[in-house]
Amino acid sequence: MINQVVLVGRLTKDPELRYTADGAAVVNITLAVTRNFRNAEGGIDTDFVQCTLWRKVAENTANYCRKGSIIGVMGRIQTRNYEKKDGQRVFVTEVVAESVRFMGGKTHAWIEHS
C-alpha cells in the first residue's frame, strides 16, 4: 500500500517546539494549503492541515520558520482516536512529516528525520 503526502503551504502560527518525556523533539503545526481550482462561487478555498513533525525536522522548523513561512511537507497520513474526560470519542487525521523543505529563502533544502 502507498501512504504518501506532499503539501506546500503557509504556517498559520509560529511553531512551538516541545519535548516528550523521553526527550524527542516534536512540533504540531497547521499548514494552510490553497486549492488549485476555483469553487462554485469563483473563489479559491484553503484547507488547514494538521501536521506533526519529529526530531531534527521539528527542531529546524521551530528555529527557522515563523507564521506565514512557506514550507513543503512530505509525509504520511495518520489517523488516531482518543476518549475525552467526558467520555466523548475524538477522531484525528493528521500528516506525520518525514521531511520538510523551507521554501522562502534562496536555498530549498529538505530536512529529513535522522
UniProtKB/TrEMBL annotation:
GO terms assigned for molecular function = single-stranded DNA binding
Q: Name one GO biological process term.
A: DNA replication
Q: Is DNA-binding among the key words of this record?
A: yes
Matching entries from PROSITE patterns are given as:
SSB
Keywords of the record? DNA-binding
Cellular component annotations (GO), alphabetically ordered: nucleoid
Identify the Pfam families for this entry: SSB
Q: Which domain of life is it from?
A: Bacteria
Tell me, how does this one assemble? Homotetramer.
**Protein's name according to its UniProt entry:** Single-stranded DNA-binding protein
This chain's source organism reads Geobacillus sp. (strain Y4.1MC1)
